[in-house]
Design goal:
With about 250 residues, the chain is mainly α. It has two domains: about 140 residues, no CATH class; about 80 residues, no CATH class. Helices cover about 45% and strands about 10% of the residues. It has a three-stranded antiparallel beta sheet with strand order 4-3-5. It has a two-stranded parallel sheet with strand order 1-2.
């Protein structure tokens, strides 16, 4: 997928969700070392960029990504704006690969959270109680993600606690909701559990597991001002942000 295709994907009007912007705007900027001290289920509450530790840099990355989510800024806009900001402060600019990775992973996560919020609306769940995993079927698709492509599970299945995308860096997978009638008309099988492994059409056997660090549902754990029960590094970063201080 080239830059024009990526820009087209993330500029789609139907993928601009108020929930997506709120989710990403609520994430707490932390350093990479702070980020990896968090238990995995809390990492979607935080935001970091590998290689940067200064609060103003992390904040600018977050603001540029938020502009992509809210205003439709493209990958090219993101990279150009960030490189201008970084170079003014004596840093090297981000490479095309770094920009693509940061942009795609963060924006796709936010959009999928927004999509989750819409699909779990009680009225929507009542009308469309089944969800189908949808992977991009091309040479770039990871085998484990391809093995999930087309599989259908009830919307309330614990499968979605693990397999709600993105399920890896630069993952392009999505989930679509289906009505009972659609499932029946398309002859789809509703599964209850994900098999541990499967043989693909080309004969390859693959274990069905998300990529490391991507086996939690980012929409299931949301940060609120009530800090009770949250890890100390995240509470500290939140308090510092609210107080207008820079993280250590």
């Amino acid at each position: 997928m080239d830059e024009k295709e990526i820009d087209a994907l993330f500029s789609r009007k139907d993928m601009t969700f108020e929930e997506a912007a709120k989710f990403f705007g609520d994430r707490i900027p932390v350093t990479t070392s702070q980020f990896f001290k968090l238990a995995e289920q809390y990492r979607n509450l935080a935001f970091t960029v590998s290689g940067y530790s200064k609060a103003e840099i992390l904040k600018q990355f977050q603001e540029e990504l938020l502009a992509a989510i809210k205003d439709g800024n493209t990958l090219q806009d993101f990279r150009a704006n960030m490189n201008d900001f970084l170079k003014e402060r004596g840093y090297k600019g981000v490479t095309p690969f770094q920009a693509d990775n940061i942009f795609r992973t963060n924006v796709q996560t936010a959009y999928n959270v927004g999509h989750y919020e819409q699909m779990t609306d009680p009225a929507v769940l009542d009308a469309r109680p089944y969800w189908q995993y949808d992977a991009v079927n091309d040479s770039h698709t990871r085998r484990s993600h391809l093995a999930m492509d087309g599989r259908v599970f009830p919307a309330n299945s614990p499968v979605w606690d693990t397999w709600f995308p993105p399920n890896g860096y630069r993952c392009r997978c999505t989930v679509r909701s289906l009505s009972k009638r659609q499932v029946e008309q398309r002859g789809l099988k509703v599964e209850e559990e994900v098999p541990s492994g499967v043989k693909l059409a080309d004969g390859r056997f693959v274990n069905i597991l998300p990529d490391p660090q991507f086996d939690t549902n980012p929409a299931k754990v949301r940060f609120t001002p009530d800090l009770k029960g949250f890890p100390e590094p995240l509470k500290k970063a939140y308090r510092e942000r609210e107080a207008g201080n820079k993280p250590e």
